[in-house]
Design a protein that fits this description.
The chain contains 17 helices and 14 strands. The strands form three sheets. It has a six-stranded mixed beta sheet with strand order 1-2-10-7-8-9. Strands 5-4-3-6 form a four-stranded parallel beta sheet, sandwiched between helices. A four-stranded antiparallel beta sheet has the order 12-13-11-14. It is of the alpha/beta class. 46% of the residues lie in helices and 19% in strands. It has three domains: 224 residues, Rossmann fold (3-Layer(aba) Sandwich); 69 residues, Rossmann fold (3-Layer(aba) Sandwich), CATH 3.40.50; 78 residues, ACT domain (Alpha-Beta Plaits). The protein is elongated.
Length: 412
């Protein structure tokens, strides 16, 4: 993509990003960029991970928000700022606003999870719940901006925010200069715009790849001329943006080599791998770059790849669901539907086989009434856990040899 575009006057420059780095130094963490030997084995690439989930608010958004706040005149800051967000931008503005003594108002959709409202309130922001969608909340924020004389802080389509996000690249390239390819998540495009600008200036040889969730390909369509809907349910809600920014799209058109789409299943697997292998929590958006390596392995095989783990704010119940689904998909957890006679000892005979094959029983569901089986038969569904798919298959074979009708209850 970068080679096809005609270069115009830059919206931001390397000097803007370097100035932002000096401005925010000490108030935002220089997060580590580390080689992951195990993820390298899993993906076939040499994988370096930038752990932006270690920021105080657990996401890179602090960089752009703080740079923007520090560049405001004191009189402007004293009147207060306002933003529309249900996620990381809200917490970043609230946290650094309180540090600097800036009154902060955040408008969130009414359906925003309570935990996110509480976290943002905990950083000292005034919360306004309005509307059913982000668009509704954004419109209300712009109305309140005019009504109250506040300054609106855009989450991505702002050159000073973009410059702050670009400081991620300065740290990565200094800490892991051997990186050949950068993989960066795209929502509105602020992170990729800043990272791409810095990387093109410092290391024009590095390949820059943006990634989006399959259900929200807005930048992919805008840059590539594709016609796909941006709608659906994704665990990468932090990058579920229907309309990319005007500034960010202009920058990305010039600096990015490729944009890839990542299916939900691979994003879920990436979240699970980060927890299992790196012992770190990644939200869906933050895990999408790793998901790209899983869904496009041939694209990155043998390359030295830098992944930006952009954030770790994921609902704990959602995280639990993702981990359990991954166990099921990997064949380490299953639900078996077993038909047996409704007589004393039948269930015991089944349980004995689970013990014989050392498969752990998690839950048992016994069904006598709501079934089409003969009245003297019953069915049970057993959720179970094994060390690997082979152990589970040995159990299924053993149940069949003992005369039980067994049907694995699959998942899509």
């Amino acid at each position: 993509m970068a080679s096809l575009a005609s270069r115009s006057a830059p919206i931001i420059s390397l000097q803007d990003i370097q100035a932002a780095a000096r401005r925010i130094e000490g108030a935002v963490m220089h997060t580590p960029t580390l080689l992951s030997r195990t993820l390298s084995q899993v993906t076939g690439a040499t994988v370096y991970v930038k752990f932006e989930n270690l920021q105080f608010t657990a996401a890179y958004k602090e960089r752009g928000a703080l740079n923007k706040l520090l560049l405001m005149e004191e009189a402007t800051r004293s009147r207060g700022v306002i933003a529309a967000s249900a996620g990381n931008h809200a917490q970043a503005v609230a946290y650094h606003g309180r540090r600097l003594g800036v009154p902060v108002t955040i408008v969130m959709p009414t359906a925003t999870p309570t935990i996110k409202v509480m976290q943002t309130e905990g950083h000292g922001a005034q919360i306004v719940l309005h509307g059913d969608s982000f668009d509704d909340a954004n419109a209300e924020a712009r109305r309140l901006e005019a009504e109250r004389g506040l300054t609106f802080l855009h989450p991505f389509d702002d050159p000073e925010v973009i410059a702050g996000q670009g400081t991620v690249a300065l740290e990565m390239l200094a800490d892991a200069p051997e990186i050949e390819t950068l993989v960066v998540p795209i929502g509105g495009g602020g992170l990729l715009s800043g990272v791409g600008t810095a990387t093109r200036a410092l290391r024009p040889d590095i390949e820059i790849v943006g990634v989006q969730a399959h259900f929200y390909p807005s930048m992919y369509c805008h840059i590539g001329g594709h016609d796909l809907p941006s709608a659906g349910t994704t665990i990468a809600e932090g990058i579920a943006v229907k309309q990319p920014g005007a500034m960010t799209a202009a920058i990305i058109r010039e600096v990015v080599d490729d944009i890839l789409l990542v299916p939900e299943r691979d994003i879920e697997t990436a979240v699970s791998l980060y927890l299992q292998i790196e012992k770190t929590v990644a939200e869906g958006a933050g895990a999408t770059p790793l998901g790209a390596l899983l869904s496009h392995p041939e694209r990155f095989a043998g390359k030295k790849v830098g992944l930006i783990l952009s954030g770790g704010n994921i609902d704990t119940r959602l995280l639990a669901t993702v981990l359990l689904r991954d166990l099921a998909r990997s064949g380490r957890m299953a639900r078996l539907r077993i038909q047996l006679q409704d007589v004393p000892g039948a269930l015991f005979a089944v349980v004995r086989l689970f013990d014989k094959f050392r498969v752990n029983i998690i839950e048992v569901y016994h069904q006598r009434v709501f079934t089409s089986l003969p009245a003297k038969d019953t069915s049970i569904e057993v959720e179970c856990e094994a060390r690997d798919p082979e152990q589970l298959q040995a159990l299924v074979d053993g149940l069949g040899q003992a005369g039980f009708n067994v049907q694995p209850v699959g998942m899509e």
